[in-house]
C-alpha cells in the first residue's frame, strides 16, 4: 500500500543512521522492517475492559509470599498492599 511504501524506507533510513551502540533500537527497527516486508498487520497487543459499562468484574491473582523470609506478614497486610497496587493500576 501507499503507506507501507512510505513507511518502509523511513524505517530503513532511521536504522542506517543509528549508532551501533543503540542495539535495542536496532533490534526493534529490524523486527518492524521484517514485519512490514512480510505483510503482517499491526498486532493489538492489549485489550482493555470498559470498567464503567461492564458489571460483575472478578479479578483473581495468586500471590506467593516467601513466609520463611517474612514470617510476620499477615494476610490482611497483603490484601491491603494488593488493593493499593490495583488502585494505582486503575488510575
Question: Overview of this structure, please?
Answer:
With 91 residues, this protein is mainly alpha-helical. It has a domain at 3-38. It contains 3 helices and no strands. The chain has helices spanning 2-17, 23-38, 75-90. It comes from Periophthalmus magnuspinnatus. Residues 6-56 form the KHDRBS Qua1 domain. This is KHDRBS Qua1 domain-containing protein. One of its GO terms (molecular function) is RNA binding.
Topology of helices and strands:
Elements: H1 2-17, H2 23-38, H3 75-90
> Structural class of the helix and strand makeup?
mainly alpha
β-sheet strand percentage: under 5%
* DSSP helix fraction: 40-55%
Shape: elongated
Order of helices and strands: HHH
Low-confidence stretches: none
How large is the radius of gyration? 23 Å
Q: Report on the biggest sheet.
A: none
Keywords:
KH_dom_type_1_sf, KHDRBS Qua1 domain-containing protein, mainly alpha, elongated, 91 residues
Summarize the structure.
Helix content is 53%, strand content 0%. The protein has helices at residues 2-17, 23-38, 75-90.
